[in-house]
Structure formats: C-alpha cells, structure tokens
Design a protein that fits this description.
With 478 residues, the protein is of the alpha+beta class. The chain has ten helices and 22 strands. Helix 2 runs parallel beside helix 6 and helix 2 packs across helix 7. The termini are far apart. The N terminus is likely disordered.
Length: 478
C-alpha cells in the first residue's frame, strides 16, 4: 500500500559536516536501508549543481542506476495533480471553495454529515473526510496498468450501492473541513475533477499541459506511455530477511502515486516551482498562484498547502512532497529563501530509522552552501516520450446543427454499442452550463437542445462514453 510519511520527521545526521558526501558513504546508507539503488540531484538558483547515482536499478539483470533510470514517484505524483488543478483554477474553471458535486456526474455525500459539502480546497488540504480504505485499495494493485477507469473507481468507492463502498471504511466520522487526514483517494478525486472539467483523460492532459512543455522526457502516469520499460528501476521490498522484486505494478487510483519519470525530468518540474511557475522560457503557472499554493490554507495544519507540504531541516522551511509505495521511497523539497532544491529517488522501502530522508538531509546541507556558475546547466533536452493515444471518437458518431444556432439545436448521435452517454454543454473553461442528456445511446438518435436560456457565446458540446469521447465547438447567437 502507499505509505504515508509525516511532514515533520526527525532531523537526521544533524552533526554531519557539510562536505560533498562520498559514494561509499551514500552506498552504506542504502545498504543500511536495504535499498538497492538511488539517484539524487541538487538544484541551486535554477542551476544543475550535483547529480549522482548509486546501486542497482535491476538486481537480476545487474543493471546500474543511471541518470536515465525511471523511478516511480509514489505520492510526489500529487504535486502534478496540484499543478493541473491550479492551471484550471487560474482559468476560472472553478473556485477552491466550490462544492465538487457541481462538477461531477455523480454526487458525493458523507454518510453521516450529508448536509456538508466537499470542496476542491478540502481535497487539496486532505480535510475532505474521505478515507483510504486500505483493504479496498490494496485489492486494486495489479501488474501493469489497471483497466479500471477513474469514473468507475470513484463511483463504486464513493456512491452508496457501489461494490467498493463502505460508509465507515471509506469516510472519517468528522465533519468535512474539520480535521486533517491524509487521503490518497481524495487526491485521485481531485485528478478526476481535472478530467471532468477539461473533458480530457487526466494522464493525457498532464502529458500535453505539463510534461511536454517542461521537456519531461520518459515521463508517464501509465506504463503504456513508456516506450522502454527496461529503463524503470525495479521496486524492491524488504521483509526483514529478503529483498523481493515487487514488479511493475499499477492501480486504479493511479494519479495519486503511479507517475514514473527520471531525475532530470523531475528536476525541471521542481525548478519550475522554485522559479515561481516558470522553467526557462516556459510558464506553467502564474507566480502568484505558486506562492498561494505554498501557503497554509486552514489553521488545521500549518504545514499543508495545496497538496504541497512543509519539511524542516535545521529550522529552515522547505516545500515539496515525499512518496512511499511498495519498493519505492522518494523525496522532493526546495527552499525559496536560499533557492536550494533536492530530489532523492530510491527503489526500496527503507527502514524505520534509515530512509531516503537520511540521504535528503545530507544532500540539502551540502547543497545550500554551493555557489552556481554559468557552466552548471541542465542536461540537453531530447524529448522522446510520445503522448499515449487516447481514443476520443472511436465509438461515437455525432453531428450538431445548425451551428451557429439561436433558440434550438439538434444533436444527431450514432452509438452502435448502446453505451451510457453523458452529454453536457460547457463554456470554453470547461464549466458545465447545461446538462443535455444522460442515458443509453443508440443508432440514429436525435436529441433536441433548448438554447432559450443560453447567452450568446462560444461553447463546447461534450459527449462522454466509457471508452470514447467527442467534443464539438458550438456558437450560440441570440
């Protein structure tokens, strides 16, 4: 299961000199943590200052960790959810205190506090009251990518009558917004909201709106999006006596932990945040948005921002995230004051006393005293990751007329598979303006759209089925 790391962990190696740690010293830490391999990077003032690899990515194949090795990010993946979510927030697609039910095709209610609303902010702050039911979520692990869609997962987990639903197992007893409890499934729900608002598959949206723009090569939420899986570090679990290869696994709640990438790509992503939303000439988020994300949103937990959290080394405040999963332990934090950021990626579980934060603290203390020069540049960008082919129109035939239209328009559908359809009219920011149809599709189906209450403007008609989607740009002239 995905392990949950506390935000205020004990400081380690506080008396260590701040010289560059030797390869032998780092390998000893890994050995004591029963972790086969790791790589790490230090970024200072936007400069590539230090990068090292240690140990094995694949023990059976005697494959060393290299700068090209891909690691599973575990919960660092949630910082990508945060990025995608706040891109839409900047565009006015939603407000953080909106009730998420206004954006979902199903409704989420607390079984005890049904009058309380779950908001976007609650999901980002882990105060939604939605609980990780470990027995359920553990059963969803499998080798390879899970075929279960986010919609299927969340409907069955959050809606009474679903085969994954439990009133007591899936929800905390407290009122939403009244307590802080880390929630992987809540983060996945935030990712699904990105998918609903954009009308794009979440993994595909991240590929096009974030990864491609930052030259995050070999980066994908899905194994299907990685052309050479031999580059992936095998995850190894320590049971007290033996290291076991956990395999290349996945799960239905993939947005909260399944991202895989290499150290260079993730360093570009972290540098974008260190430079308040911009990497080189590419802006991903507004600087004010990034500053807001690194601000505690409620007094419930002063170390919690918008999915990002605080970490402290020698009384210095850093922002970022840790991650842990079967055979995976990761950390990414940065200090805005001294512009020092460190990433540590490993393919082991660690132990209660020795883990990737042992390495992180050592490297941060070394890195904060480095002085960059013009020669300390990032490796060249050779982008090779292809965007996974998402079938959007395969099973839906759709025509809309007239276009432009005023009072009435007609939608002609041809869905031979008789799939369940959800058809909505949205504005260009993805906000639902009108629900057009929800039900079974059929061949030669004609649906009337009443536009008398719709203002003039540019809209999208979105038709969503289980494995396909079609979108038509539509103009209303009144």
């Amino acid at each position: 299961m995905k392990k949950l790391f506390a935000f205020a962990l004990p400081l380690l190696l506080s008396g260590l000199a701040h010289a560059q740690p030797s390869a032998t010293y780092m390998q000893d830490i890994l050995n004591n943590a029963y972790t086969p391999g790791a790589n790490a990077v230090i970024i200072k003032d936007g400069h590539w200052m230090y990068q090292q690899n240690w140990g094995k990515a694949n023990i059976a194949q005697n494959q060393d960790v290299s700068r090209q090795t891909l690691f599973m990010m575990a919960s660092i993946s949630k910082t990508v959810i945060a990025t995608a979510l706040m891109q839409l927030w900047e565009k006015g697609a939603f407000q953080l205190d909106d009730n998420i039910n206004s954006y979902l095709p199903f409704q989420v209610y607390h079984p005890v506090h049904a009058n309380d609303s779950v908001t976007f902010r609650m999901l980002a702050m882990h105060t939604s009251g939605i609980k990780d039911n470990n027995a359920v979520m553990g059963s969803l692990y499998m080798y390879g990518d899970s075929p279960m869609s986010l919609d299927t997962l969340l409907r069955n987990y959050l809606v009474p009558g679903g085969n994954l639903y439990s009133a007591t197992g899936n929800f905390y007893a407290y009122h939403m917004g009244k307590s802080h409890s880390y929630s992987n499934i809540g983060a996945t729900l935030a990712a699904y909201l990105v998918q609903r608002i954009t009308g794009d598959d979440f993994a595909h949206y991240c590929d096009t709106a974030i990864f491609q723009k930052l030259c995050m090569d070999h980066t994908s939420y899905k194994l299907a999006g990685i052309s050479d899986t031999t580059l992936i570090a095998r995850p190894y679990m320590w049971d007290g006596s033996t290291l076991t290869d956990a395999g290349l696994y996945g799960y239905a709640d993939y947005p909260d932990g399944q991202l895989r990438t290499n150290i260079t790509a993730l360093a570009r992503f972290m540098t974008m945040y260190m430079q308040y939303g911009q990497y080189q000439n590419t802006r991903i988020l507004d600087s004010a948005t990034v500053a807001y994300m690194m601000t505690p949103q409620t007094p419930l937990n002063t170390g919690q921002g918008i999915f990002f959290s605080k970490y402290t080394v020698d009384n210095e405040t850093l922002w970022g995230h840790t991650g842990g999963d079967a055979g995976v332990s990761t950390a990414m934090f940065f200090n805005y004051t001294n512009q020092t950021g460190v990433i540590v990626l490993t393919n082991g579980d660690g132990t209660p006393t020795v883990n990737m934060l042992t390495i992180f603290d050592t490297l941060y203390r070394y890195g904060r005293n480095l002085t960059p020069s013009v020669a300390d540049t990032f490796p060249a960008c050779n982008y090779v990751t292809g965007v996974p082919n998402i079938s959007k129109n395969a099973a839906i035939g759709m025509q809309l007329y007239p276009n432009p239209a005023s009072h009435t328009a007609w939608l002609l559908l041809n869905t031979p598979g008789h799939e369940d359809l959800d058809i909505v009219l949205t504005d260009m920011q993805g906000r639902i303006i009108k629900k057009i149809y929800n039900g079974k599709g059929s061949e030669n189906q004609k649906i009337t759209i009443d536009l008398t209450d719709i203002n003039s403007g540019l809209y999208l008609v979105q038709c969503n089925a289980k494995n396909a989607r079609k979108v038509i740009k539509f103009t209303v002239v009144q």
